[in-house]
Write a structure and sequence with these properties.
Layout: H1 3-13, H2 18-25, H3 29-37, H4 44-54, H5 58-63, H6 66-79, H7 84-92, E1 99-103, H8 109-117, E2 122-126, H9 129-137, E3 143-150, E4 154-155, H10 159-165, E5 169-177, E6 181-184, E7 195-199, H11 200-205, H12 207-212, E8 216-220, H13 223-233, E9 238-242, H14 244-250, E10 253-256, E11 266-273, E12 286-294, H15 300-310, E13 315-322, E14 330-337, H16 343-355, E15 356-366
Parallel strand pairs: 1-2, 1-3, 7-8, 7-9
Antiparallel strand pairs: 3-4, 3-11, 5-11, 6-9, 6-10, 12-14, 12-15, 13-14
Length: 374
């Protein structure tokens, strides 16, 4: 039996049409048809996605049963320089399990978000957002916590360029309250402080308190880094604005809590994984995130979004940004309420795809309880 025949048999056993399987693995229906006819063989990554969608074992889908499968599996393991038994154990216990990556140093607000949302995971600090993505893609971490927007500062720079090119999926969201602490070395007092270090946005968010205390604001690359520097200086005249966690880690005392000028400052995070994990419809409301491009013709955006209106789908977010040097191609990042398995959402996405030149689902995940607090 060929790979295409095994795929067709599994699809029929799962009671999926070619179109439904295509949607599940984010390819076109003609691509699935070519795979099943044996005209084109899917990549190993595509085989894993197909296997998940069909509830089949990837090894069986790729190689079939019996001696042929065993020989191919063993040959592949030997080519990688490891025994087949070791390869099977590694697959059963993937590298990076129980680790969640974040951008920044210990004490950053992303670190705090990791501890609050995934207390059982080990936080892994990374020097950049790209490094956090790579940690998951390369297996050093199971998940990564990525800030995507802030209630005061708007969207986080680079996120909408990094997300579309990543092989990761959004599997959860987390809303992290940003509560700034005024930190200083042990023995320091408010009256003795002269300068305060922090990230420029944190300084801006606390400017009234900084002015009230008569402090000189000194910008640093990040809040946790400012706390670490202040701890190293040990100068009672120099403080930092950072998280309470940063104070704990670097041995600083909190001279004043909640010094942000506006209460309610919140950063929305998304959690990324190598594995696509779509929630069950019975588990509650969902969010679907995706990017798309439309043809450069009049009313293209209007027509592409019409399906969401006619099917009663609420668009939570819609942002555009230019992707080419000629400033002619706009890519859109969108989020909607609902799950692609729901017929109205499926119809709306189908209409969007008809009017788009590109459509990529970035993730389907449960709505955080924070959304329902208001």
């Amino acid at each position: 039996m060929t790979l295409g025949e095994r795929m067709r048999r599994s699809r029929r056993a799962a009671k999926l049409s070619q179109a439904e399987l295509a949607a599940a693995v984010e390819v076109s229906q003609p691509t699935v048809a070519r795979w099943e006819r044996g005209e084109v063989e899917p990549s190993q990554a595509a085989i894993r996605r197909i296997a998940r969608a069909l509830g089949a074992a990837p090894e069986w889908l790729a190689f079939g049963d019996g001696a042929e499968a065993q020989a191919r599996s063993q040959a592949r393991s030997q080519a990688q320089g490891k025994p087949a038994a070791l390869a099977r154990r590694e697959a059963a216990a993937p590298a990076g399990a129980g680790v969640i990556a974040f951008q920044g140093i210990p004490g950053a607000f992303s670190h705090l978000a990791c501890r609050e949302a995934y207390p059982g995971h080990e936080p892994l600090p990374c020097v950049s957002f790209e490094a956090a993505f790579a940690a998951v893609e390369e297996g050093a971490a199971e998940l990564c916590m990525i800030p995507i927007e802030n209630s005061l500062g708007g969207r986080v720079a680079d996120m909408h360029h990094l997300l579309p090119d990543s092989s990761l999926y959004i599997v959860a969201e987390h809303f992290q309250p940003v509560q700034h602490h005024l930190l200083a070395p042990p023995g320091a007092t408010l009256e003795g402080l002269k300068r305060v270090f922090s990230h420029v946005q944190a300084l801006a968010q606390c400017k009234e308190h900084v002015r009230e205390l008569g402090l000189e604001a000194v910008a640093r690359a990040d809040t946790a880094g400012a706390a670490k520097e202040v701890a190293a200086l040990g100068d009672p005249q120099v403080g930092a604005i950072a998280s309470g966690l940063a104070g704990e880690i670097y041995g600083l005392e909190t001279l004043r809590t909640r010094i942000e000028d506006r209460i309610g400052n919140t950063t929305r995070m998304v959690v990324m994984s190598r594995r696509r994990q779509e929630p069950d419809l019975a588990d509650g409301p969902c969010v679907t995130s995706f990017i798309f491009q439309v043809r450069s013709v009049p009313a293209a955006l209007y027509k592409s979004l019409g399906g969401f209106a006619t099917n009663g789908i609420n668009i939570i977010k819609l942002e555009s940004y230019i992707t080419d040097s000629g400033f002619t191609v706009a890519q859109f990042y969108a989020e909607i309420e609902g799950h692609p398995a729901q017929k109205p959402v499926d119809r709306a996405l189908d209409e969007l795809q008809y009017f788009s030149t590109k459509l990529k689902i970035l993730g389907v995940y449960p709505q955080d309880d924070f959304r329902r607090q208001g």
